[in-house]
Design a protein that fits this description.
The protein is an alpha+beta fold. Among the domains are: 208 residues, Beta Barrel (Porin); 124 residues, 2-Layer Sandwich (60s Ribosomal Protein L30, Chain: A). Helix content is 18%, strand content 43%. A hairpin with a 4-residue loop joins β7 and β8. The longest helix is centred in the first third of the chain and has 21 residues. The relative contact order is 0.12.
């Protein structure tokens, strides 16, 4: 097991260094799916209370796979499969009496077994397969990091367990009521002082449910790989013991009284319930990807048809008048010649393409700069509506088609709150639109942001409708 964990750690470090070297300056995208491998350790122990003993918590560790799917920008579900190993201990210093036993040397006589424990220490180890299901929430801390939190339930499936008693001693004596005599220092009959030297498997556990929570930060290692560092905790909600035992910690073997049968803490009357407790830190390497249709570029506009040009027809010359007293000349009918049409100039293809591109840019600029991205009530989380997101998708498609195009986003607020608060809120709204364009594939260096706070309202702030119009982000194209 140690070799497996060491190999997993080496692979994680290699992935971290390789991804960081090749993608140190890559822009982290906002993915909807994540699959990763995690390692964690810290407090991990079977939580119990012994009637006559002192229970101590121990350390534990875990490793496993996890998958997360986000339905929107902030909320998602997570599912995992983990192996967890826990440790605990119980120390006993007390005297235990078991009455009504029958000794092999005197079958018809009953006796009371008195066992005195002196610094007897039992160590426990338990292994579980855990299947967590969590509701996830994430919040962007910057362009390249996310705060991720999770809360949910975890199914605990017991795999194996073992206890070891290797510290302290116990002493046994037998009291026979029929003769009123106490027998001691007879090891051949099971009465003596013995050092702790016993171990056995732990059985009798059943599946249980725990409450689990996580909180950490995901840092990008490239466009798809990420490193998660955080804290975790879980607490058992149901008892893992399959029934409550009435057996003492130790009894003598009826067939061979010189041999003691040690039942162990979890199989004796010392405890009536066990719940799992874990808390610590963990790291994980994950791979992210997104599902869904790629935003379609807006349909190309129809090219304007060329306007027909008017061709001026030549006017016929007036015929000369005959001179006075002149003899009329015979009229010879000549066929009337058809006037030649003026040649229509052919348009220059380059000039026509440039004219159409300029017209398209002017139309897009007028349409984009007339769009205001609306936001909810002041102070709430910046949220882009579905209708505004369609506009941003169209803008992103146009910017991808024209690499020279840039955009400036200016955030605005209403007049509720102080000027400083509104200036920061306006910047948050501009940044929210910027992050959405980056997620749609636009490089960050082509997007500029600014905030005007409440300085430039477009409607009176004395009505709810006017304040709603002022809570916006304006777009301006530059080329």
């Amino acid at each position: 097991m140690k070799k497996i964990l060491l190999a997993a750690a080496i692979v994680s470090i290699f992935n971290f260094q390789f991804s960081n070297f090749n993608s140190a300056h890559a822009q982290q995208r906002e993915h909807t799916n994540y699959l990763g491998l995690g390692l964690g350790g810290g407090l991990g122990s079977p939580l119990h209370s012994a009637v006559h003993g002192d229970a101590a918590l121990g350390l534990g560790f875990g490793a496993g796979l996890h998958y997360a799917h986000f339905f929107g920008r902030h909320f998602g579900l997570g599912l995992g499969v983990n192996y967890n190993r826990l440790h605990g201990a119980t120390t006993y210093n007390f005297t235990e009496t078991t009455a009504g036993l029958t000794h092999a040397s005197n079958p018809g006589v009953t006796y009371d077994l008195v066992t005195t424990y002196d610094g007897w220490r039992e160590r426990q180890m338990l292994g579980f397969l855990s299947v967590p299901l969590e509701l996830l929430w994430r919040w962007e801390l910057g362009e390249r990091s996310w705060l991720v939190a999770g809360l949910g339930a975890q199914l605990e499936l017991p795999l194996h367990g073992r206890y070891t008693a290797d510290e302290g001693t116990y002493a046994t004596t037998g009291y026979f009521p029929a003769i009123g005599h106490t027998v001691e220092n007879l090891p051949q009959h099971g009465f003596g002082t013995y050092n702790a030297d016993t171990e056995a498997d732990i059985e009798g556990f059943k599946p249980a449910v725990s409450l689990v929570a996580d909180l950490g930060v995901r840092l990008p290692l490239g466009d798809r790989w990420g490193l998660y560092v955080g804290a975790y905790g879980s607490l058992g909600l149901t008892n893992m013991l399959d029934g409550t035992s009435t057996d003492p910690l130790l009894v003598l073997d009826p067939a061979d009284p010189s041999q003691a049968l040690y039942n162990g803490t979890f199989a004796s009357a010392e405890v009536d319930g066990v719940r799992l407790l874990r808390a610590g830190v963990k790291v994980a390497i994950d791979f992210g990807w997104s599902c869904g249709r790629t935003p379609q570029a807006p349909a190309a506009e129809e090219k304007p048809t060329a306007r027909p040009q008017l061709v001026q027809q030549p006017q016929p010359k007036p015929e000369p008048r005959p001179a006075p007293n002149a003899q009329p000349q015979p009229v010879v009918m000549q066929p009337k010649a058809e006037p030649e049409a003026a040649p229509v100039p052919k348009p220059n293809p380059d000039q026509e393409a440039a004219r159409q591109a300029a017209a398209a840019r002017a139309e897009l600029k007028g349409r984009v700069e007339g769009t205001a991205i609306a936001f909810d009530f002041a102070g709430s989380e910046p949220h882009i509506s579905q209708a505004d997101d369609l506009s941003l998708r169209a803008l992103a498609a146009a910017m991808q088609a024209d690499p020279a195009m840039r955009v400036t986003i200016t955030g605005h607020t209403d007049n509720v709150g102080s000027a400083d608060v509104n200036m920061r809120l306006g910047q948050q709204r501009a940044d929210a639109v910027r992050q959405r364009l980056i997620a749609l594939g636009i490089p960050a260096d082509r997007i500029a942001t600014a905030s005007r706070g409440m300085e430039q309202p477009i409607a009176p702030n004395d009505t709810p409708e006017g304040r709603a119009r002022n809570r916006r982000a304006d777009l301006k194209l530059d080329r």
